[in-house]
Write a structure and sequence with these properties.
With about 650 residues, the protein is an alpha/beta fold. It has two domains: about 350 residues, 3-Layer(aba) Sandwich (Rossmann fold), CATH 3.40.50; about 280 residues, 3-Layer(aba) Sandwich (Rossmann fold). The chain has 23 helices and 15 strands. Helix 19 runs antiparallel to helix 20. About 5% of the residues have low confidence. Bound molecules: S-adenosylmethionine (SAM). The site of S-adenosylmethionine has 24 residues, from helix 2. The site of S-adenosylmethionine (SAM) has 24 residues, from helix 2.
């Protein structure tokens, strides 16, 4: 095929206009790698966009290239794919497309939806005809997967060049002058002796399965979703001929919404960094800060970036002036582009496997409930869990409190039973919403009441340090929030924020039923966000329900022999704060033993947490009951000094036990 037909022109991967493209930043990245003497054999570009950064390193190392968008992944397959392609044949095909006489064809999906929008009627019809034909060639196995990506890439670059937009597809200009003619060009593919791995994953999932010497991170900066800006490219790439909505004619994009454009971007970023397996991490993030309009403000604060990277090793920051391709609305086009370099010295979390889930039954670590219930079993969990049976169908966590035991249980079904309806509603709220929405609600409440956000701003912003804490700063806002919740007691989202800002993240109501804990030292910080996110995730991964029942109701639940009942009742000897509500009586204690004895007769396995001895006092009722029935008493070691008990017990005077009938 004669290249003269194409005017000897070819498409270079760097040619596309793309929000946040780093084509002009490549020499800056090079200069950092040189100055720091960084040698590498593999380079992962995990928010690759156009793929221009990965492409830059393809002549000197293996590359890993990833983006969540289909359209981008076709570009990578075309330029970096392993399979051979028949370039001559593809050029013939492009020529055929360019010369198509559209009059011979009827209307198609694309012309019906997009005529006189981003394209004039003629170009829209042509795009639809070409796209239908590419699909047909692929389905009939006339072209390979990479060849399909080649043709699609040529089409995408061609229509992107003539589209009636300012470079993205959030809107189009009214067409007065017809578009230029669509013209498809061949691709300028450089063969490399290095290999390329191509993915279309969420970056947070991808980093758990890849390893590279350098991982380059260039996430979205602001609230503008790439799936919105490039919906039309996705429509063409996926070609499901979906219904389009609104003036901008967008397809449904809910499945490709990025966490990095949301207010919770900082949480996602922290999780990403924790799981990277690399020698060096490079992060591009500009200093948009609070400049520009609300939509262009940065989603991740410097504090969040630095604290995440510092968890993995030494960090350096490099800066350069850089003319950014923006949507034109921002008042700050000349940005300082920064690159954070982290020399990794601390092993990644994905190598340590810390979160227990159904895919990870060997529980190395445990999810911690965001609700720090008095007497919560988080610290004792490693010891207790070892004593649980391994073959449980339904695990009943009775007196579940914050559900530290229930959420970490390994069983087919998990039922958490708790008498306090606020606690149950709180846990259901965390389970029900998707984390992004919940996080957004929490942040909105924090903003409305003027509570601190040390996670975004750092302690310095509030003129305090970690040891003095944020109590003083938050006191009046917290009391306002507490008053607001106590008025109706129906807004469980307000209660969640109260718990997140309350003394030791606890929950307590006085005899009038009012939430009455004072403000705490901490706020919705990195670890409480992580706890909320992990609780949300695990309570959805497992089959787990939260029931507002009395412990006596467990018997009504048609228990079977392969079920298991774990109970963590208030302690007669413990004097923990829930007893202040007039909670636990000797009658309750006796009912409990009677219930357990009946379960034992039905051969249902149980384990009871309790305190056998406290400040020299012994729980005689329990001791005799266990002895009489021949149950096993396992002593647990627990350091009360570090716990949140109000008790002033000396370490050696409290004996915590687990009593089992198996
Ligand atoms: C700032 S752009 C990258 C620009 C790129 N470095 C370039 O030079 O063209 C961010 C990219 O991240 C992608 N993205 C957003 N969220 C993602 C996620 N969770 N996982 C992977 N990619 C994501 C977007 O689709 C977008 O292409």
């Amino acid at each position: 095929m004669n290249d003269a037909y194409f005017g000897n022109k070819k498409i270079c991967i760097t040619q596309r206009r793309y929000l946040g493209s780093k084509t002009k930043l490549l020499s800056f990245i090079d200069s950092i790698l040189e100055a720091e003497n960084i040698e590498f054999n593999s380079f992962a570009d995990i928010f690759a966009g156009t793929g221009t950064v990965a492409n830059h390193f393809y002549n000197r190392s293996k590359i890993i290239v990833n983006d969540i968008l289909d359209s981008n992944s076709h570009v990578y397959t075309a330029f970096f794919g392993k399979d051979s392609i028949r370039e001559g044949k593809l050029k013939e095909q492009l020529r055929y497309y360019n010369d198509i006489e559209i009059k011979k064809y009827g209307e198609n999906y694309f012309s019906k939806n997009f005529s006189d929008t981003y394209f004039d009627a003629e170009n829209a019809k042509k795009i639809g005809i070409i796209r239908d034909d590419i699909e047909k060639l692929f389905e009939e196995k006339i072209i390979t997967n990479r060849e399909k990506s080649y043709l699609l890439t040529s089409l995408i670059y061609a229509f992107d060049k003539i589209a009636n937009t300012v470079g993205h597809y959030d809107a189009y200009r009214k067409i007065d002058i017809p578009n230029k003619k669509l013209f498809l060009l061949p691709l300028d593919i450089t063969n490399s002796r290095y290999s390329a791995e191509i993915y279309k994953d969420d970056a947070n999932e991808l980093v758990k399965k890849i390893k590279a010497d350098v991982v380059y991170i260039d996430p979205p900066y602001n609230s503008r979703q790439y799936s919105d800006a490039y919906h039309l490219l996705e429509n063409i790439a996926t070609w499901k001929k979906e219904k389009v909505f609104g003036v901008a004619k967008k397809i449904d994009r809910s499945h490709i919404k990025s966490k990095y454009n949301m207010k919770s971007a900082g949480v996602a970023f922290g999780d990403l960094i924790d799981n990277i397996n690399a020698k060096y991490i490079l992060v591009s993030y500009n200093d948009m800060g609070t400049a520009g309009n609300a939509r262009s403000q940065s989603r991740i604060s410097d504090h969040e970036i630095l604290s995440a990277l510092k968890r993995r090793g030494e960090v350096k920051i490099f800066e350069t002036n850089f003319k950014q391709f923006t949507t034109g609305k921002s008042s700050k086009d000349d940005l300082k582009e920064r690159i954070f370099l982290c020399k990794v010295s601390i092993v990644s979390k994905s190598n340590k496997s810390v979160i227990a889930s159904k895919n990870n039954p060997v529980q190395v670590g445990f999810v911690k409930s965001p609700l720090n219930y008095t007497g919560g079993k988080h610290k004792l969990l490693p010891q207790i869990a070892k004593l649980f049976p391994k073959d449980i169908k339904t695990f009943y966590d009775v007196f579940s409190g914050g559900a530290n035991v229930g959420i970490n249980a390994t069983a087919k079904n998990i039922v958490c039973i708790e008498k306090n309806r606020y606690v149950v509603n709180l846990l259901k709220l965390i389970q029900d919403d998707n984390f992004e929405d919940l996080n957004q609600r929490v942040i909105d409440i924090i903003d409305d009441f003027g509570l601190s956000q040390s996670y975004i701003k750092g302690y310095e912003h509030y003129n305090v340090d970690s040891s003095s804490g944020l109590g003083q700063y938050n006191k009046s806002a917290f009391l306002k929030l507490r008053g607001e919740f106590n008025k109706e007691k129906t807004r469980i989202d307000l209660l969640l924020v109260l718990v997140l800002y309350s003394f030791n993240n606890q929950i307590r109501f006085n005899s009038n039923g009012d939430f009455n804990l004072p403000v705490g030292k901490r706020d919705y910080n990195g670890s409480s966000r992580k706890n909320v996110a992990a609780f949300n995730q695990i309570s959805n991964e497992k089959r787990i329900v939260f029931k507002n029942y009395d412990f006596r109701d467990v018997e009504k639940m048609s228990l079977k022999n392969d079920d298991f009942v774990y109970l963590d009742p208030p302690y007669l000897l413990g004097l923990a704060s829930y007893n202040e509500m007039g909670g636990w009586t000797e009658k309750d204690e006796k009912d409990l033993y009677a219930l357990l004895t009946r379960l034992d007769k039905k051969e249902i396995r149980f384990a009871l947490s309790n305190v056998l001895e406290h400040k020299g006092k012994i729980n005689e009722i329990m001791k005799n009951w266990a002895k009489k029935n021949g149950y096993r008493v396992h002593k647990l070691s627990y350091n009360y000094k570090n716990s949140n008990y109000h008790s002033t017990a000396k370490n050696n005077s409290t004996i915590e036990v687990l009593i089992t009938n198996y």
